Amino acid sequence: MTGSSFFEKAFKLQKHKTDTKTEIMAGITTFMTMSYILAVNPQILSEAGMDYGAVFTGTIIASVIAMLMMAFYANLPFALSAGMGLNAFFTYTVVMQMGKPWQYALTAVFFEGIIFMLLSLVGVREAIFNSIPINLKKAVSVGIGLFIAEIGLINAGVIKLGQISLSLGELTSANCFIFFFALIIMVVLTARKIKGALLWGILISTILSLILGVTHFPDSHIVSLPPSIKPVFFKLDFSNIFSFEMFSVLFSFLFVDIFDTLGTLTGVATKAKMLDENGNLPEIKKALLADAVGTTCGAILGTSTVTTFVESSSGVAEGGRTGLTALATAGCFVISAFFFPIFSIIPSAATAAALVTVGLFMITTVAEIDFSDISEAFPAFMTILMMPLTYSIAEGISFGMISYAVIKLFTGKGKEVSPLIYVLAVIFILRYLGPLF
C-alpha cells in the first residue's frame, strides 16, 4: 500500500475534498504557529520549580499522544498541547499564590483529565456544544479571531497589555519590523492564492531575523537527544485530594478548559464549515475525548492541562480538513524533540504575524450572524466583544450565554433556549457573584 492510499483509507481525503500535500502543509503551518508553546510552557512551569528540559519533553509526548488520538480516532484537523492560560494558572495561582507544591497542581490536572474523560464518555461536553445556538457559535469564531489577533500584536510588541488598558508598543523595534514584514508577505501570498502562505511568511521572516541578528544559531549542538522526563514523571501528590482547596483548584481548571476547548472547537470548525445542518460538529465526542486523554497523560508526564489549540485555525486556513493535518503536526512535534537547542531561532514576531492573519480569516464569519433580531444580535456582540477585552475565550462565552438566556427569557422567547443554556447561565452568574458571599 502506497503512502497516498494509506492516507486516503485512514483519513478519507477525497470525501473531505482535500489531498495529502494540502493536509501535510496545513499540519506544518499549525505547528509553526503553535511551536512557541515548546519554549513558553517549560519556562512558565519551571517558575513553579519544575525541570525545564523535562517539561519540554513531557509537553511533546503528551501533545503527540493527544494529536494521534485526534488524527486516527476523531479524524479532525485540530492540534493539541499544553494550554496557555492554564499553565499560568498552574504556576502563578496554585503554586505561587496558594503556596502549593507543583506536585499538588499536577495532581489537580490529573483528576481534571479523568473527570473530563467521564464527562466526554457520557456526552455531557457534547451536549453543551450542541446546545449553543448557531449565532453564538458564529460569534465565537469572530471573537476568537479578534482574540488571536490581539495575542499576535502583543507577542510582536506592537501593543502592550497593561493591567487596565492596551497601549502602543515600540513600533520602531526590530521585532516589530520583522512582524510587519512577515504580515505583508502572508497577506500578499494569500491574495495571490499561493498555498502555504503563512508558512512561507514564517520561514522568510525567520531568515530575515537571522540576518538582522534578532535571533542567532545556538552555540551548542543543533541536534541532541531529548531531555529526560524523569524529574517530573508521575510526580503526583494524593495526600490532599479531598480538601476544599483541591476542589476549588479542580473547578477552576475544569471551567477554563471546558469552555476554552469548546470555544476553540466551535470557532475553528465554524470557519472550516465543518458543522452540520444543525450547527453541530460531527465526531465532537471523539475530539473532546482526545483532549481529556491528553490532559490525563500530560499530568503523568509532567505538564499542565492539554487542550485544543486555537492556532489550529492556521492549518484550517491552509486547507486542513482531516486527521492527517493533526498527524503532520504531531510529526513536527516528534522531530522538534531532537532540536531542543534551536527553538530560539524562530522569532515570536513571525508566528505573531500568522496569528493576526488568521484573525482576519476568522472574523469574516461575522457576515453570517443574524443582526436583525436584537435578542440574537446582542448576545453575539457580547461574545465577540468580551473575548479580546477580557483576554479570555471562556469569559466571552460566559457573557454571551448569560445575555442570551436573560434576553430571551425577558422578551418572551424563553422556549427558544435549551434548558442546558439556562443551567450554564446560572452557573456563570453564581461564579461571578461568588466573591460577594
TrEMBL record:
Q: What parts of the sequence cross the membrane? A: 21-40, 52-71, 104-124, 136-159, 171-191, 198-217, 246-268, 288-310, 322-343, 350-369, 389-410, 417-434
| Superkingdom of the organism of origin | Bacteria
Instruction: Report the protein name in the record.
Output: Putative permease
Q: Name one GO molecular function term.
A: purine nucleobase transmembrane transporter activity
Record family assignment: Belongs to the nucleobase:cation symporter-2 (NCS2) (TC 2.A.40) family. Azg-like subfamily.
Q: Name one GO cellular component term.
A: plasma membrane
Q: How does it sit in the membrane?
A: Multi-pass membrane protein
Q: Does the keyword rRNA-binding apply?
A: no
Q: Which InterPro entries match?
A: Azg-like, Azg-like_bact_archaea, NCS2
**This protein's record includes keyword Methyltransferase:** no
**Residues in the signal sequence:** none
The places in or outside the cell where this protein is found are: Cell membrane
Q: Which UniProt keywords apply?
A: Cell membrane, Membrane, Transmembrane, Transmembrane helix, Transport
